[in-house]
Amino acid sequence: MKQMAMALALLLGAAGVEAQVPEKENGNVRMAREIPFDRMIPPHELEVSYEKTVHLLFPSEVRYVDLGSPNIIAGKAEDAGNVIRVKAAVRNYKGETNMSVITEDGAFYSFNVRYAEEPLMTNIEMKDFIHDGEAVNRPNNARQVYLRELGSESPLLVRLIMKSIWKENRRLVKHIGSRRFGVQFRLKGIYAHNGLLYFHTEIRNMGSIPFDIDYITWKIVDRKVARRTAVQEQVVLPLRAQNNVTSIARYSSERTVFAMQKFTIPDDKHLVVELCEKNGGRHQTFTIENEDLVRACNIEELTIK
Predict the structure, then answer these.
(1) pTM for this one?
(2) What is the mean pLDDT of residues 102-111?
(3) Cα(157)–Cα(153) distance, rounded to whole angstroms?
(4) How far apart are the first and last CA of the chain?
(5) 231: Cβ–Cβ under 8 A, 6 or more apart, which residues?
(6) How many CA atoms lie within 13 A of 185 on its CB side?
């Protein structure tokens, strides 16, 4: 039986078909397929020490970290979601272990970690494969990971779409905005793709005092509210933001692209977008109707670069 299985494997290999290697399990022969090397994610080599901390700077926020053994410890730096600090938990541990990291843009990074009393590098910036100047230049140790809040959309594609909308800077919407106290807050475009909506906004500060942003809220509320009636609000939270600024200098402007889960607005409600100034009163508000959403630009009409 074994000879027949081997002969079959040789024939399949000669015919260009991926062969399966027979293995025994509980006395029974089962067919197991070997994983080809082109499916392997080559790891980075990383040295860590008991006396020094190694910092890894990733191009986007870290969502997941896994350590291969208790010989090393790692964690996100406080108030810096894209930085991981790594140290040896055991002095002079033998051999090597591994570490895996998943970032918010859907990239998977793999590391082989070994001990070194004096690590060659203690501060490492991981390559940003979107902004490195090459159209298709992803490191072969980064693989795409899908995140739950984005559904079936690739985090990398979401990031590319937001970047392209921001870079093209088209003004598709001309009737939605607010202008008070020398500050203008307006909506420049609404885009849709694969279950997500993208809102392109602009803040212009035409005054001599910088405008510091406290927060921006997106709420679906009733058009008309009778007196002594509780206001029904549904808060819509952005999933991602391109160029999410916190301050606009005097006589300048900034643009931001927000990505959100697809939604619609009932006829008796509208979407209220409120921009509030930190320690100030130059607040801005505009509304978006459902008819504005249904006229969103199809993202296939946009050149993604």
Answers:
(1) 0.63
(2) 83
(3) 7
(4) 56
(5) 221, 222, 225
(6) 21
